[in-house]
UniProtKB/TrEMBL annotation, chain B:
Record InterPro entries: DUF112_TM
Residue ranges crossing the lipid bilayer per the database entry: 20-49, 61-82, 108-135, 147-163, 169-188, 200-221, 354-378, 390-407, 414-430, 470-488
UniProt-listed PANTHER family: TRICARBOXYLIC TRANSPORT PROTEIN
One Pfam assignment: TctA
Lineage of producing organism: Bacteria, Pseudomonadati, Pseudomonadota, Betaproteobacteria, Burkholderiales
Domain DUF112, first and last residues per copy: 20-438
Keyword Lipoprotein: no
This protein's record includes keyword Cell cycle: no
Protein's name in the database: DUF112 domain-containing protein
This protein's UniProt keywords: Membrane, Transmembrane, Transmembrane helix
């Protein structure tokens, strides 16, 4: 896993280098162009990535404090929360801030409940959490759009209904 | 005295009802954020950054500063009662304070933490008042080479000192620098790493990275790995300190302020080192060393908590006078300044004097407010801990959406937010520090500009960095930060072996 991580970093470094090659070296009279730092960062990252791989192969990353919590990831919870965030990103402009965020709220609650081993898929729980989600999102929407005049998508073009 | 005069003007601005209200709300939110696990001050400020679109600069700076300090106060509450330090600075508080709480002295621990924070915060604010203008006056003379080297120093210290591994710190810093590269080059106006996507032309918002790494990353990490962990809460007792506890606390507060403040002023970042130093000092000086780590010694809470606050307050000196953020929160604050088109730096004290002095004055006011909010009301804050974890994190995700979407009204940013959240999970799992990412991202473009200006001044010659005594001195410091710990360790190993 750690080796994979190092390899991923190396890949990222190569990607950066590939990107750097597309940046012009037009330097003006300063002698250092806009492509200097990209090259520097990709080279340094490549060196660090290779060191990470080397460390991973020879006894693992040094002085590693393993992340807290369980050994194995709880993928079901991860999927719920991912769905919450991604659906929110996809629907926010069509559903409006309040409904989209309420949906995000409901789905993340499902995820965390499932991580606690209490996944509740009954209609009652969905409705209850949905209402809490609206109760959280609606005042926020109202405050930011009305008091601070910040644009958040409403349900219709003219605002919220 | 000129400084006092300016400070009085500051008080006049900060004490208007509207600004007092902003300070109050900031302190409230900050304390709540500190108490609630899962979000720190950096994320709270980041999530609320959209208000910079509408609220006037002084008011929002006062508001953000209130959140910053409030979180420090609130953080000790959770550390003592739950043994879950919200941020690195309260780690030591958690060690000793939790032991005290388990022995039924939670109240005294909370009191010494709150009063100690007040004492240290107030003294540090006085020091900021008098030192910051002084630093600014000298900093005006710094040229691009010195500025660049200062930023390199900030990079080095933030990645080498904070984490346990220099290599992982460097990787985090480089990732941050790479993220900072995205967008239009500030000098030639060339697009870099945009892949032709118009959404990336303006670069990635620092807010997005901070909220993604800290809030979304934390939520994803928590659902994946920490679902089963049950937290036990210690009972809250009355926040009353005995005469003996007072006598043991106050020297610790003062010593810790003296330790914490200098660490905040240098671009070394973080409050871990001063809190640990203060803890070690108290342990050495204490007449009751047997209490440390067993029943809990009050000095072990008083000192680190005060050191933490002094350091945090002092971070405003490099931020305001040099424009160099030394913590995640100051990095976000720098972003807030930039949203107003204000560049913190030596000129800030001249060009935006009213704002700076109102901000400093509000720190005095905020410290008093926090003491009042925290001592009698601590029971109320603790009730926040009854919010079930699923609802708490779901709420945090909704607020993250608000913060990120509210900045640019772009759904693309929300997808990016998710991706950065995944990165945050990986970093947390493999013990990569997150602070260098944020600092690298925000200082990277600034450092690049200074570097290119410096080389231009040197007519293309890199020796410019060695010719000027200021920048040469800074190079020596950077090398010392990188090499000294290694050499010392090697020497210690040799004498031991």
């Amino acid at each position: 896993m750690q080796t994979l991580l190092g390899a991923g970093l190396a890949l990222l470094a190569l990607l950066l280098a590939w990107g750097a090659s597309a940046v012009s070296s037009e330097a003006g009279y300063g002698g250092v162009g806009p492509n200097f730092l990209p090259w520097l960062v990709s080279a340094a990252l490549l060196v660090c990535a290779l060191l990470c791989v080397l460390h991973a192969l020879t006894g693992g990353l040094r002085d590693l404090q393993a992340g807290s919590g369980a050994e194995r990831a709880h993928w079901q919870g991860f999927l719920w929360v991912s769905a919450a965030l991604l659906l929110n990103a996809l629907l926010i402009t069509t559903l409006g801030f309040i409904l989209s965020c309420a949906l995000c709220f409901v789905l993340s609650v499902r995820g965390f409940k499932s991580a606690e081993g209490q996944l509740d898929l009954r209609l009652r729980a969905w409705v209850k959490d949905g209402l809490i989600g609206v109760a959280v999102a609606a005042p926020v929407f109202w405050m930011f759009t009305q008091l601070l005049a910040i644009n958040l998508p409403g349900l219709t073009r003219t605002g919220w209904l | 005295m000129e400084t006092l005069d300016l400070l009085m003007h500051g008080f006049a601005t900060a004490a208007t009802p509207v600004n007092l209200l902003w300070a109050f709300v900031g302190c409230m939110i900050g304390t709540a954020v500190g108490v609630l696990p899962g979000i720190g001050p950096a994320v709270a400020v980041a999530m609320l950054l959209p208000i910079t679109v509408k609220v006037e600069a002084t008011a929002s700076m006062i508001f953000f500063a209130g959140i910053y300090y409030g979180a420090m106060y609130g953080g000790s509450t959770t550390a003592i009662l739950l043994n879950t330090p919200g941020e690195a600075g309260s780690m030591v508080t958690a060690m000793e304070g939790n032991k005290m709480a388990r022995n039924g002295r939670a109240g005294a621990a909370l009191a010494t933490a709150a009063i100690g924070s007040f004492v240290a915060g107030s003294i540090a604010t006085v020091l900021v008042t008098f030192f910051a203008p002084l630093v600014a006056r000298h900093a005006v003379r710094l040229g691009p080479p010195e500025y660049f080297m200062l930023m390199v120093l900030a990079f080095t210290t933030v990645s080498a000192v904070l984490g346990k591994s220099l290599l992982r710190g460097m990787v985090a810093l480089l990732v941050g620098l790479a993220l900072g590269l995205i967008g239009i080059d500030q000098i030639t106006g060339q697009a870099r790493y945009t892949a032709g996507m118009p959404e990336l032309m303006d670069g990635i918002e620092v807010v997005l990275i901070a909220v993604g790494l800290f809030a979304v990353g934390e939520a994803l990490y928590s659902v994946m790995y920490e679902g089963q962990t049950e937290e036990t809460q210690n009972r809250l007792t009355s926040t009353h300190m005995t005469r003996q506890e007072w006598r043991r606390s106050w020297p610790a507060w003062l010593r810790a302020t003296a330790i914490g403040f200098p660490f905040g002023t240098v671009p070394a970042g973080g409050s871990e080192i001063p809190t640990f130093l203060s803890y070690a000092t108290e342990k050495k000086l204490s007449r009751n060393p047997q209490e440390f780590g067993t029943t809990g010694a009050i000095e072990g809470v008083a000192g680190p908590e005060a050191a933490n606050n002094a350091a945090v307050t002092a971070t405003l000196i490099p931020l305001l006078t040099l424009g160099i953020p030394t913590s995640n929160t100051t990095a976000i604050l720098l972003g807030a300044f930039q949203n107003y088109g204000i560049q913190p730096g030596p000129q800030l004290f001249d060009s935006n004097a009213a704002l700076v002095w109102a901000l400093i004055a509000s720190m005095y006011i905020g410290n008093v407010m926090l003491l009042i909010l925290n001592l009698p009301l601590v029971g109320l804050w603790v009730k926040l801990l009854n919010i079930p974890k699923p609802y708490l994190y779901a709420g945090i995700l909704v607020f993250s959406t608000l913060g990120v979407y509210g900045m640019r009204q772009s759904a693309f940013d929300l997808l990016l937010l998710y991706a950065i959240g995944l990165l945050g999970v990986l970093m947390r799992r493999f013990d990569f520090p997150a602070a260098p990412v944020v600092v690298g991202m925000i200082l990277g473009p600034l450092a690049e500009t200074q570097m290119r200006n410096a080389v231009a001044i040197g007519e293309g010659k890199w020796t410019i960095f060695l010719e000027r005594p200021g920048s040469l001195g800074l190079i020596v410091v950077v090398l010392a930060v990188l090499l000294l710990p290694r050499l010392l360790r090697r020497r210690a190993a040799r004498t031991a072996g």
